Structure formats: C-alpha cells, structure tokens
Amino acid sequence: MDESYRNLTDFIRRTSVSETFVDILLCAVPIWLAVMIGLLIGWSWRPRWTGLVYLGFRSKLRFLWTAPPGFGARRVWIAFTALSAFSVCRTLWSRLGSSAKKSIGEDPPSEAVSRGSDENREKEKDVVTEKDLEHLLHLLEAGNADMEWQSMMDKSTPNMSYQAWRHEPQTGPVVYRSRTVFEDATPDIVRDFFWDDEFRPKWDPMLAYFKTLEEDPQTGTTIVHWIKKFPFFCSDREYIIGRRIWEAGKKYYAVTKGVPYPTLPKRDKPRRVELYFSSWIIKAVESRKGDGQMSACEVSLVHYEDMGIPKDVAKLGVRHGMWGAVKKLNSGLRAYQSARKPGVALSRSAQMAGITTKLNMDLVETSRVEEEEERGQAMEKARRQKEQFNVDWKWIAVGGVALACGLHSSAIGKALMVGAGQRLARR
After folding, report:
1. Which of 18, 233, 314, 355 could form a disulfide with 220 if both were Cys (CB 3.0 to 4.6 A apart)?
2. What is the Rg, in whole angstroms, of the alpha carbon atoms belonging to the chain?
3. How many Cβ atoms sit within 10 Å of the Cβ of residue 9?
4. Three-state SS for 263?
5. Which residues pair with 201 in a beta bridge?
6. Cα–Cα distance, 102 to 139 (Å, whole number)
7. Which residues are within 8 A (CB) of 228 and not within 5 positions of it... i.e. 6 or more apart?
C-alpha cells in the first residue's frame, strides 16, 4: 500500500502530467469564455417574444429538474461525471502500474547517466548522419509517390510561390511538405538565411532565445538551443537541434533534427520538444518570368514535430497560421538580401552554413534504386495476390450457360438418376 501511494505521488508530481492538465485547461478557458460572452450578448439583445417562449418552457424544465429518482438532470449529470472520473482514474492507475513495472528492470540513475554521457561523447561527431539524409530523400523524392498527401495551400505573390501538403500517418505527428520558389534569389543566400540565427529574430517572432552549444568546423555540424514562444494558452517550447548541410553542385541538402544533450537537462518550463525533424533541399530553378534564366530558388521542405499538443488543435493552428508565416519568411529573405551587401561580415551561423559535406551521389542513386526495388516488390506481391484470388469470368459464363441448358433439357436430372442407379446396383 505504501509503495502504491509513493508511486501515485511520484506520478502526480511529474511535470508532464501537470503541464498537460494546465494546457488542457488553458485551451478550454478561451473557448468557454467566448461562448459565455456570446450568450451574454445574445441574451441582452434578445427579442421580447423570447421571454414568452422562456415562460412557456420553464415549467417543463422544472419538471425535468425535479423528475423522479433516476431521471433527474442532476442525477444524469452526476452519473456521467462519475463514469468519466472512473475512466480517468483507471487510465492513470494502468499507466502508474506500467511505469512501476518498467522501473524494476531499469539501472540506477547514476549508472544510467554515466553510461549515457560516455555514449554521447562517442557520438558527438555523428549527431546528424547520412541515415538522416536518406530519411530526407525518402520523404521528398523516393517515397513521395507512395505516401498519401493532402493539398493544403497553393498561393503566390509577385516574387514568390508556395504549395503545401500534409500526410497523416496512423501513428506519430502529421508530416508537412512544401515547395517554395523565391524569385531573384540564389541557393547560397537562401542557405545562409535559414541558418542565420542572429538574423532570425528579425522575421521570426516565435524565436525568443538561441545559443550555439557545439560546432564542428570539419563537417559544419552544429548543435543549437532554441526556445520558441507559443500562444498564451500554451507554454513555451524548448528545442535542442542538430543540423548539417550536404552539397552536390549547387544543390544543398540541409538536415535539422532534435538530438539529445545530457549536459543540458530538462526543466519544468519551457517544455522540451524531443521529436523534431525539419529538413529541405535547395536548388536553382528557372524563373517564371519566362526569360530562361535560372534566377529563382526552389526550397522543398519536409517538417514534423511532436509539440505535446492534441493533433487536431495543432492542425488547426498550422492551417490558419501557415500563409502568414510564409509571408513573414519571404519578407525576411528580402531584408536579408538587402543586409548582405559586399564587405559586410557574416555572422557565425552563416559562416557555419558555408561549411558543407560533399554529397556522395552513389548514396542518392542507391536510395532511389532501393526504393524502386521495394516499390517493384510491393507491386509484384499485389499482382500475385490479385491473380490468386482472381476469378475467370469466361469459364463462369460458359458454366452458367451449360447449367441453364441442362436444366432446360432435364439432362442434369437424368444424369443424377443414372448415377444413383449405378451406385445401388453396385451394392
């Protein structure tokens, strides 16, 4: 009993549980506040005839409120509340039991931390690897056709065009994909613009804090610490991001993802986002002016993250804030182009963006070949299953005609009688 009570208190004291309840409460308060304001305004401006309707229904409402036991509105409300509370308590108790079972087989905290720090020292140089690049190529190029993408937006301005799609997997966060074409922009400028944390607060109002934690001058890999401001009904979010750029000609493959960083432990606030992947491919394309010049820059982006917000609420926020964020992005790029005059010193982040890794084109071709082979095997398997369960309607038609003719001429009945007589004769 003491152990169960201790586990229960530890579970309640967890910051994730309290933050979840606070986020739900803060998300619900503005909605109910808007509903109450609407009711007050509507009631104050109500027509006079609504008072007569209210007097007519008041007796019926009073009857419902004072109905016999088992049928009163208060009793129904209490019953539903009790069922909801029982469901919530059962879920919390099951999670508590699973966490207690999990803690039995875990190592002591000191040993786990020491072993984790040793592993992180070994992996400091391989924060973002070619496996992450393969994942980017799979989402944007090889596996793009195999995923179901829902169109979200297709808009343009005089110097920019934007298209966006989303994919909703059965498990995990929603995956967003976009294609942006900036007129009169080079891939180098766009690459430095996305990497420049010192300039980012001038166009991204959500970035409240940034700091470079580590950097590798050989590969250009950096680990940065971000804190983003969220709306008032949600707490701020913290990101530990590892990023790296590969180059093939004038085509850049930029990969950013959430990485562990034991030397910077989690805090109560802001809430850390661990599952984060935001990567893009930058290349020069022909301008839509029709002059045949490669003076435009295309950015193909794929992004997903688990912010700890309900999926429907996150989709609603992304859908309503997407175009405004894209316009701020375009304005920020134009301001960055103006600021990048000859002779102006580059920021440290922009300097690190210029340190890229030469991309092994065999990796790209191998990824494409593997995806094509997997796609071919899947198509062959589907074809075999279709042939296995396929019905040859030609023979069914021939059999149906023969059966109809036999029934019409009584040939089938005679054949059955002859067969039965032969069996009796053998006996």
Report:
1. 355
2. 33
3. 9
4. coil
5. none
6. 34
7. 206, 207, 208, 236, 237, 238, 239
Q: How many degrees, rounded to 5, is the angle at CA 137 between CA 134 and CA 143? A: 110
Contact 182, 159 (CB under 8 A): yes
Q: Report the C-alpha gap between 374 and 376 in whole angstroms.
A: 5
| Backbone phi and psi for residue 243, each to the nearest 5 degrees, phi listed first | -145, 150
Cα(25)–Cα(18) distance, integer angstroms: 11
Which helix (H) or strand (E) segment is 277 a member of?
strand 276-285
**pLDDT digit string, tens, across residues 191-205:** 999 999 999 999 999
Concatenated DSSP letters of 117-135: HHHHHHTGGGSS-HHHHHH
* Block residue for tokens 């993802």: 257
Q: Which token pair is 197?
A: 């944390």
N residues, the chain: 427
- Is the pTM higher than 0.85? The answer reads no
Cα–chain-centroid distance for residue 148? 14
Taking each helix axis from N to C end, the angle separating 49-65 and 73-104, rounded to the nearest 10 degrees, works out to 70
- pLDDT tens digit sequence for 371-403: 555 555 555 555 555 555 454 545 455 455 454
Amino acid in position 318: V
- In 259-340, DSSP assigns E strands to 271-273, 276-285, 296-305
